[in-house]
Amino acid sequence: MRQAIHIFRKDLRAQAIQIAITLIAVILFAVISVKHALAPSEISSRIPDILEPALIVAWWLLTVRVVQSEALSGDRQFWCTRPYSWKSLLAAKALFILAFVNLPMLIADTVILHTYGFELWPLTPGLLCRQLLLTTVLILPIASLAAVTTGMAQLLTTTFPLAVLLLASSGVIIGVDIAWPWGPLNWIRSAISVLAATAATVTVILWQYKERKTVRSRILVGVAFILVISTSWIVPWTWAFGIQSKLSHEHIAASDFKVSFDLSRKWLARTLPMPLGRVDMEIPQAVTAVPRGLDYVPEGLAISLHAEDGTTWRSKRGEFAQVNERAGILSMNTSLDGPLYQKIKSQTVTLRATLYLTLIGHHHETSIPIQKQPSRVPGAGVCSAQQDDRSHLNIYSIYCSSAFRSPPEFISAIFGNSRSEGIKRPGSYSPFPADLQISPVIPCFSDSHSGEKLSDAIVVSTEPIAFIKRDFELSGIRLSDLEAMPPAFF
To answer: Which pTM does this prediction carry?
Structure first.
């Protein structure tokens, strides 16, 4: 341990300037976040977003410099002639990261949360989970790359193609959001990727400090990168929904729900020929026999068609993309190939499907006085209800913020006799106390109202309590009877 402290002091002197830059970035981030907490409606809410990339870059530069101060790639470095124990060297680097990356951010998080009005002790698991995520997702990968390269130039040459591949796989380069389309279930795919990346980066770092087998470690880095990218694509959505179902707070039998063709809106059922031979199909659904006190949100739909002549078709689209609910109308949406549609459209077909539902309940209402002081709201974090001081009209706004993650609750507001539509779908169903976010406070709900004079407003929250799938069958459907004229511009 004495040797580790000696190396730590040496790094402290050598990296003094970079340490100062990193601490200044953290302090600026904390100060501006506190300013935003005191005035949530101000435009200053955009400023922390500008600082976040700078803060990450400062952490990365500090990590690279401290790791490469005793370069692990090669055998001609001066430090190799010193009687260093690899365990002491690794402990010194870990202590340095904890002291100048994790600890300052932990202090900043505590100050920011206190300013927002959160109670700190109940948030202890979230504070620790957040530091763990920052370390495993942001620090360990760059530390492993620094461990297998000899300098900043080689590091940049290595990371640039990896960054391009990562952005391409996520759809950023082509401007399409294709990597994370699962909404509140994205946390499962993210968790798997984080576990795979953490296992690989920890193995690389231990190998390099213990044996300095650079070629082997570089191969592992490449394999791990491919594994992390592919994991986000090979995990099926139905498997993720099954995991979420196991985490349900309550068990509710799927047989309690009945799914049928929505006869009251059968005018919405249609098959629509589209360009390139595709035919879009939409059929409204009705979910009945829902237990009292519960509501539901459709998450996904698996569809197959069975024709009289034995032809069977199963949709290749993801389950999460084949169901929607607009204006309270639930409908299935899918596409068929033109030749298949022409073959079966005059036959009587049977549609078999599985509907995936999130059940919500545990209704809570919390009264918020019209004042700038925040109030704690179960399920939503802290909320403040304010009147617009710059107007003589009765204009009121509610701002709610959550600690470390988007809450799984569905949130809405009541202003007098007016009720907002609220959140149709929360940010995440994750059971973990923190998500990977640079800011410790996440805006989760806001709403405004103008009208009668008010003394308070009400925040309403309901939480997901069960995740079920319901198999159903619709028979006697003739697709040609549903055929609509294609849009004129086609």
So the answer is: 0.82
